[in-house]
Amino acid sequence: MTATGTVIVGAGFAGIAAALALRAQGVDDFVILERASAVGGTWRDNTYPGVACDVPSHLYGLSAHPWPEWSHVFAPGAEIRAYLERIVRREGLERHLRLATPMLDARWDGEEWAIRTGRAHNAGIPERVAPVKRVLGPSADGIPASCADDELRASHLVLACGRLTEPRIPDLPGLESFGGPIFHSSRWDHTVDVPGRRIAVVGTGASAVQLVPALAAAGADVVLFQRTPAWIVPKRDRVYSEAERDALRDPDEAARLRERLYDDGEARFASRSGDAVAAAEAETAARAHLAAQVGDPALRDALTPSYAFGCKRVLLSDDFYPAVASGSVDLVPSALSSVSDGALVAADGSRHDADVVVLATGFASTRQPWAPLVAGAHGLTLEEHWADGMTSVGSTLVHGFPNLFVLGGPNAALGHNSAVLIVEEQAAFAAALIRDGAFVHATSEAEAAYTREIVERSAATPWVAGGCDNWYVDERSGRLTLLWPGTVAAFRERLARVRNELTDLHAAGTNPAAPALSHEGAAP
To answer: Is the pTM for the entire model greater than 0.90?
Structure first.
């Protein structure tokens, strides 16, 4: 058994942000658990052709670690992974890291957290995963874990596991009978040759709009199954010149660019959240982008969404429409429904041949794979507590789970700006409370009030009322459980209010009449 002050689970953006926030508060007693053999989170796992960020590079980074050497306005995935690895080395976080060490379970024992860890065999993401059952493998990320390796005891637990980690595999009759390779886009099989192959891509979300043009450019013949078209706006990506990179080596110039990009992002909230004028302008721009790049009226019609702008994630691409219109991509405006006698059968009844199937079908976003592993003071797991959808206080604290902080969890994603900004706010919030040695838990009243607040703020937005199915809303309750329905500035202010309530309660001592939160001294 190992005793430590804080256990952080995950070594992607959120976990690294949590570690840096603790360091900033003078706290150095923490352990970072990472189930894979390297840091990087989603940017370690996603290596498909064309993978890149859709948030500008100079905004998609940790505030204390600006990086002037980004090659593009929107960074390729490998550069983002290298960026995170560089921060870990520069900050000396290696001594806190336990790689290839998955959390098997965590339980609150009345005084502290007991976290069982395993030792992973083959602790990388598998390169070739067929048949379909092996896309995930026996554990959540395709990494088989042995029996328990150690138990950690910690006062505080920070879940920084990410929300896009568990590939969503569609339940399609006959899929496992397909004769060629099948894999999820986030588990790319690099042994598969692309040139000259007929590759079926299932889905037209954020990964697919990057993947499809890259496959077509590499000489693949692509058949694309589109259940629902997306609103797509110009990305306007380009390479940074050496002169631009040189200018951005000036910290003040880099800070000014980051501030401009932040302001641009905040301004996008209006069009994404349903402001009538802003949404109409954005939709007009998206339609013009489609019209300029796709000349065939029938193909244009098939690529035009019928739901409100912003209802689904708005995508950025300069090359998806040209690829679809090039003749190298066969668009099937229908979902893949089954595999029969080796052919891919669409919901419209059409049959299609392919050598390879790529499932660009998203992730289990509303039902997190780590939720069944964490048991709180009432004996329930997070999965059981969230049976009707994720709930929280300040998108960070959860009733019944003392001294637990969830980063990037309930209502902590963004559809208009960099989610790294939200994660950094949560990390700073958690670190300040951990520094104080506080015993913190959210009351059921506080959680219910915050849940009502989210429902009220989101009721009239396209995410809930825009006429589409999206990964932001939990189908069990119809509630918005992934997105924060406000600006980054509004989230910062809201989390500060939670912090102030905790500070007031601490100054006054335990206050049984306080309806919101409990904040006591050291844990009993």
So the answer is: yes
